[in-house]
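Input set for joint prediction.
Command: fold jointly, output tokens.
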Amino acid sequence: MKKIFALTLITAMLFSLAGCSSSEDVPTLTVYNWGDYIGDGVIEQFEEEFGCKVNYEMFDQNEDMYTKITKAGGEYDVVIPSEYMIERMINEGLLAELNHDNIPNMENLSQYVLDRDFDPGNKYSVPYMWGTVGIVYNKTMVNGEITSWNDLWDPQYEGQIFMMNSVRDSMAVALMTLGLNPNTREQADIEAAQAKLIEQKPLILAYTGDEVKDKMIAGEAAMAVIYSGDAANILMENEDLVYVLPEEGTNLWFDNMCILESSEQKELAEKFINFMCEKEICEINRDYICYNTPHQEVWDSLDEATLHTYPSADIIEKCFIYKDLGEMAKVYDEMWTKIMVN
Amino acid sequence: MKKKLSPLSLIYSLLIFVFLYAPIAVLIIYSFNASKSRGTWGGFSLKWYAELFSNKDIMQALITTLSIAVISAVVSVVIGTAAAVGIYYSRRRTKALLTGISNIPMINADIVTGISLLLLFIFLKLDLGYVTLLLSHITFNIPYVILSVMPKLRQLDKNAFEAAIDLGATPLRAFFSVIIPEISPGIVTGAILAFTMSIDDFVISFFTTGGGVSTLSIEIYTMAKRGIKPEINALSAIMFLVVMTLLLIVNIRSSKVEKKKER
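tokens >
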């Protein structure tokens, strides 16, 4: 008897404890974003202007975010996944259709970032940040200018090139060099890309991740494939570095803001998205995150060096966005493994 | 008794220590680097320490991490020690079964534990946040406490407890003045282990937290997209020194106690 009493008491205590954490009259908005991906004070400013509280949480991979929101969906209002994840979430009915009347600031966004294939008409998502993949090179270590993906196969740079340690990004580089579709599902195309990458191996110093930034600053190699945001960061640290978007075109990626279907604060969430599209906020984020801003005026007001890391109109025409590979993803992985062990 | 180390084994152990501690040494040195990049040395500076202490998010996460680690260590030590004693004094079959069951959560993959706890909390309609985070940490800490207390119980002189009872102590009194002091090294190890496991954990915390509550490991892991900030070097350096000092104090104290005993 005593035991049962003790047990009930403990359970009751736990529940009352849990109850404490969530009782306020102010509306609460929960935002789920990538880590370290928002300017200082932006959240506080929103809370102040709209008289609400923001729970700000972070994830480090689209897949982790997906697991968490499908299991604990009711907890989140605004999420900021990448484009391929948005496509999947739209198909699964996880995202709410946006009321564009509540997001008038969308007008100020660049035409290049709106109405993309993964979300036609931006019915479900509004761009937050975007970027490209390009080549960063050290002008003291190369002859002439680098302009094409083909330069990554130039034998004079033996052992002086960093490629990305990422299946999708490196295979896409090879496919673009060959003039093939980077989203290809053809076995023959994938094999051709594999052969191209194996041919390139003697020129490669290493397949890198995040550390490529430090290595390029330190001048360890002549050139590297790199994300535009990282490039903007390291150009400030070493004057000899130049960032180019190859003439063949490149990969465009997007992180867009979406509202979950299960959200109970849809209107406040739309206000949040609208707020994030304000010029002043986009400026703060551009300066803090260094990735490409979707805001046209903020884009136009960039200094020349940074502007150079943004793709020009005719390059954007040639760019592609990753599509889900479906079953072929496995084939890509196998090919990549063979390249790495070769 | 003590043999002198041969030069070869000296070099061998030196190498091992270099491998173990060189990364930490580099981290501490770079926490004083004025340049943001890890590739270049921009001169000595304390600016990352200053920025660390003025960074609200990191400081808040530090407080959460430490409070969760301390509370979960204390609670799991109490529950775990009681469980270990219970398991030890149960019948042989039950003992084997209970030991097995309490070991499973340790070898279970973190992601499985994390997601199942998440599902449980949602099933119980608990709001994700500090409380659920704490409950999860207590949960995964308990097996480690049991694991470190069990061997000490095995070393225990079986007659000591009975002797205390014979001398007129109540069972409770005998437990607290005979058994607890004997197994206390195991309890301390368990507490330290639980504390470290709690600070270390990312996966389970990631899935069981909510409501804007975030720990250091969540802060650091999620920075991966844009690269780890140098403030984190500063923070890690401080944490390393604090843990190092704590361990030294504990070790010096226990060696003093042993010396006393020897006398």
